[in-house]
Design goal:
This protein is of the alpha/beta class. 43% of the residues lie in helices and 11% in strands. The chain contains 13 helices and nine strands. The strands form three sheets. The chain has a five-stranded parallel sheet with strand order 2-5-8-1-9. Strands 3-4 form a two-stranded antiparallel sheet. The protein has a two-stranded antiparallel sheet with strand order 6-7. Strand 6 and strand 7 form a beta hairpin.
């Protein structure tokens, strides 16, 4: 993480567009906020947008705003999030989920610095720094025709890659203490906030949910613990068993689609049918998971 901090410190004071890459839950929004807080725009708004959570029919209105009567339900003029972030930073999380039509409009904004509200003819200039993030492989999406190559060139002026937590177990104790200080500020100067046994359990976990999962575990422990240090007894029940089991794929005589559906079923089994967690582990959106499950159901019926 020291390299990530160094990259943040170097690019934050500039006006460059930044692309943050990493699995779901690795802390991409935390990096975006750090970039904003260390920039010359720190006193201005920081607006975070999850592009994958916006309904496709409302994305343009949410980002750029609309005028009254522009469409059914538009009962008043409304500023978009680019205007709300004026002078500051807008963080477009899961930018890989934007539909192709919206990608073209985003590219125009990035190149011209102008937006047009839905239903209006005139454009207006916006002074906003754009930071994007995704867990998707955008270059692969370009090859598949799912993401515009010119937009990729425009948003990845500077890349910051966040490795998953399982690849940096040495960071777990430091992150755990940092998160504990957030939930129990009065303990931030404790010499022994965790017992060695508790830290060993945290470091041994494979963290499929990355930093987000770690934060949930530490919050759970902070609620149960009256006085430090935190012990294994304060960790969530069955925490030691919630490790990724290596998948056992049948690889002979099956198609690529069957392997894909098998991987989905394995992930669902590991997370007791919890679809959002399975989607996080697989690195796909919840919408994509539901589409794959529909295919699985159709396959089982045929």
């Amino acid at each position: 993480m020291e390299q990530v901090r160094s990259l943040i410190a170097r690019v934050a004071p500039t006006s460059s567009t930044v692309l943050i890459l990493g699995e779901t839950g690795t802390g991409k929004e935390l990096v975006a906020r750090a970039l904003h807080e260390q920039s010359l725009r720190a006193e201005q708004p920081f607006v975070a947008v999850n592009c994958g959570a916006l309904p496709e029919t409302l994305i343009e209105s949410e980002l750029f705003g609309h005028r009254k009567g522009a469409f059914t339900g538009a009962e008043s003029h409304r500023a978009g999030l680019f205007e709300v972030a004026g002078g500051g930073t807008i963080f477009l999380d899961e930018v890989g989920e934007l539909p192709k039509a919206m990608q073209a409009k985003l590219l125009r904004v990035l190149e011209s610095g102008e937006i047009r509200r839905v239903g209006e003819n005139d454009t207006q200039v916006v002074d906003v720094r754009v930071i994007c993030a995704t867990h998707r492989d955008l270059e692969q999406m370009v090859q598949a025709g799912e993401f515009r190559e010119d937009l990729l060139f425009r948003i990845n002026t500077f890349e910051i890659h966040l490795p998953p937590l399982r690849q940096r177990p040495g960071d777990v104790p430091l992150l755990a203490r940092h998160l504990l200080a957030r939930f129990r500020p009065q303990w931030q100067h404790e010499a022994e906030a965790f017992t060695p046994e508790a830290l060993a359990m945290l470091e041994a976990h494979t963290w499929p949910g990355n930093v987000r999962e770690l934060a949930n575990v530490i919050e759970h422990a902070a609620i149960l613990c009256d006085q430090p240090p935190i012990t294994p007894a304060h960790l969530p029940r069955r925490f030691g068993q919630r490790k990724l089991r290596p998948p056992h794929f049948r690889t002979t005589g099956v198609t690529l689609r069957e392997l894909e559906l098998q991987a989905i079923q394995e992930a669902l089994d590991r997370h007791d049918g919890n679809k959002p967690r399975a989607a996080e582990e697989l690195g796909i959106s919840l919408k994509t998971l539901y589409n794959k499950l529909n295919q699985l159901e159709q396959q089982s019926q045929s």
